[in-house]
């Protein structure tokens, strides 16, 4: 095997590992945020989560990469952090506080469409392949089959405004992801740390203006809350977000975006395995449809 082939093989291995991390770990963060926001306000949770993870990651990045970012790199990574973590992830934490986590996952599943549309209109200018478009449609149909809000007996009691928060968060998340390979970014670990810390600053400012009256709930954190918080920090942020950050910089958008379809399916099966939740026929059929959609989205002739 020559050097280019070996390098391509290593890159493919890293991509598969990062996709696996994002698929499986992020599939569990919906539940983690739902549990943590039972006690903590959503934006304060996001600020604590990403301050802790960002500080740890910055220390690791400085120790391993030994390269202080330039001013432009700080600005670029901070912008991406505000879009992805501040608005994108903070919006999800806010939405799951008011809405069923499964329905939030279904709405976020529109992310691949946002990826393809924004990449086509503003960045690559390349029209998406028919196979990709079919994959997006089929994947969303599968998730709708699983979390159908109009199913007989399905009743939801929540305000409508979180729906707009999710849409705005998805748009900002996909925009930030598409900007990563196009901006002067620091090295991988340092970049991820700066993004987390920038998202922390953004969400703590929102918390000051919107949640100050609820800050006293920090003293009410119990074992259940701490377990969810530590899961979000060490697995959801340090492992999951770092893996996503690598994908955003190195993988095609059509592949990176598939996490939005796989996460709800993983969450469904984790609930069945860990929490003994019911896994019905609709869930199994919908999951198979989702997998078919992901296969079509990632299909490549070469």
Tell me the layout of helices and strands.
Blueprint: H1 3-36, H2 42-65, H3 71-98, H4 101-108, H5 111-123, H6 130-146, H7 161-179, H8 188-210, H9 223-250, H10 253-256, H11 259-274, H12 281-298
Summarize the structure.
The chain has 12 helices and no strands. The protein is an all-alpha fold. Helix 1 runs antiparallel to helix 9, helix 1 packs across helix 11 and helix 11 runs antiparallel to helix 12.
Please name the defining characteristics of this protein.
globular, mainly alpha
How does this model look, in words?
By secondary structure, the protein is an all-alpha fold. The protein has a domain at 27-128 and 159-259. Helix content is 77%, strand content 0%. It has helices at 3-36, 42-65, 71-98, 101-108, 111-123, 130-146, 161-179, 188-210, 223-250, 253-256, 259-274, 281-298. Helix 2 crosses helix 9 (223-250), helix 6 (130-146) packs antiparallel against helix 12 (281-298) and helix 8 (188-210) crosses helix 9. The longest helix is centred in the N-terminal third of the chain and has 34 residues, at 3-36. The radius of gyration is 19 Å and the shape is globular.
